[in-house]
Structure prediction request, 50 residues.
Amino acid sequence: MAPDPGPAISVLQLRIALRGLSPPVWRRVLVPEHLTFGRLHNVIQVVMGG
Prediction:
C-alpha cells in the first residue's frame, strides 16, 4: 500500500523578468501559494543569481 501523500498544496507559477535587457533575462519558478513576501524575495534572489 502506498503511503498517504497528505493534503494537496496549491502552487503558483511565476515568470520573473528583468526589464531593459537584451537578450531578455527571465525565470519561471513554482512556489507554494502560502509563501510570504519575505520568502518570495529570497526565492527571487536565488533564481536570479543575486
Notes: The chain has a mean pLDDT of 93. The chain has one domain: 11-47. Strands lie at 11-18, 25-32.
